[in-house]
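Entry 14: structure prediction run for Methyl-accepting chemotaxis protein. Input pasted below.
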Amino acid sequence: MPRIDTASHDDTAALFAQRRAAIDLIATTRAKTIRAALFATYLFRPHPTHPEDEETRDGWRAVLQEQCDDMERLCTILTGRDPQNELPREVCAWICEHSANHPEAAKAFARTRDLTVNMMRAVEADNQTELGRALEAHKAYGRSGFFQRVTDFCDGLWAHLDEKRHQEVLAAQATARAISKTLARLEHIGKHVRLVSLNASVEASRVGDAGRGLGVIAVEFKTLAEEIQHLAVTARDDIRKMATGTKTG
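Run finished. Output tokens:
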């Protein structure tokens, strides 16, 4: 009997961690939205008496551009693909499915991306009037419930992840029970093999030289019984490790 392969369990744990990381990535949209508005405000309202130098303003522009890029990436992930190839396809597909089931949330993400891009375009054009309008539109949309939409979207992903995790735990428990029954049967067979080995050894001793062949068979049976016992113990250890990983994963 081969050792229980725990690779599939490790893959499941890795996928679960990747999905959690994806949810965290989406949740940071709230902070990124605030950050975009903050640095757009810096660019729109220079210090009244000590205007910032161009190097400082270039740094602010870079931060605002970073928020634009992050929002663009997020909206692409919602369609099922990570342009940076950091999230596995299966995770992107999972997020895409959730997004399709919550179209209003998907529209909210896209709207915030567009508003952020509008601010960046106004900055690049050095048009303070357009930047002021874009900034106010961005802030107004944020105040209109966008942050709660992000929270609800992430909560939905967490709920789905928890349910899936629960189903995986139940399936793992059912598999462990089935394997335990098989191991119990294997251990029962091992006991009988040891008994046969003992009886063969006794019979071989009783008949002397004529029982040498029987003695060899007895040794073989003893070795087989020990191997069965070792495999059973090893398999139970594997099951115990899987159960521990399921509880803590």
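Notes: The chain has two domains: 7-169, 172-248. Will compare against the previous run tomorrow.
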